[in-house]
């Protein structure tokens, strides 16, 4: 008996499109296209605290949280709070360990492309944000803003215990931990009496 060469079977897939056929009159009215409402530009809305203006009520509401300290979005895993839902979403990636943006220069990984872009300026030496008062330059705009607040003495974050004021919320929170330690120390001392 001769060996019969086994030929691979080719699978052919035929795609078909379903077309709805109707007995109705062909000249019947075609469905009307949805029309967009013409949106008239709204007047910029000013913040009643600092006067800064915003194009939408939503943007103004987000901005007001910088004054009120409201942080309505909380991570259910660690309790960290945020002023914006998008910031919480990015934070949640840290619990999953997902860092999709990698630096080609040093291999550092980041959760957001914006963070990678900011990091890459370290390698290029680019510092596009310069202080008008002392000419010091920064890689990030928010660092320039913080630096500028130092010049004008703006310290918007106040410790609830001793009323000491701070440039950033994080520095104020770090300071308030000292009060917590002092309170615990006093409690421990009174407990031994």
UniProtKB/TrEMBL annotation:
Residues 45-72, 73-100, 101-128, 129-156, 157-184 form the C2H2-type domain. SMART domains: ZnF_C2H2. It is found in: Nucleus. It holds the Pfam family zf-C2H2_6. GO terms for cellular component: chromatin; PcG protein complex; transcription regulator complex. GO terms for molecular function: DNA-binding transcription factor activity, RNA polymerase II-specific; RNA polymerase II cis-regulatory region sequence-specific DNA binding; zinc ion binding. Its main location: nucleus. InterPro entries: Znf_C2H2_sf, Znf_C2H2_type. Keywords: DNA-binding, Metal-binding, Nucleus, Repeat, Transcription, Transcription regulation, Zinc, Zinc-finger. Belongs to the krueppel C2H2-type zinc-finger protein family. PANTHER family: TRANSCRIPTIONAL REPRESSOR PROTEIN YY (PTHR14003), ZINC FINGER PROTEIN 143 (PTHR14003:SF23). This is C2H2-type domain-containing protein. It comes from Euphydryas editha (Edith's checkerspot). The lineage of its organism: Eukaryota, Metazoa, Ecdysozoa, Arthropoda, Hexapoda.
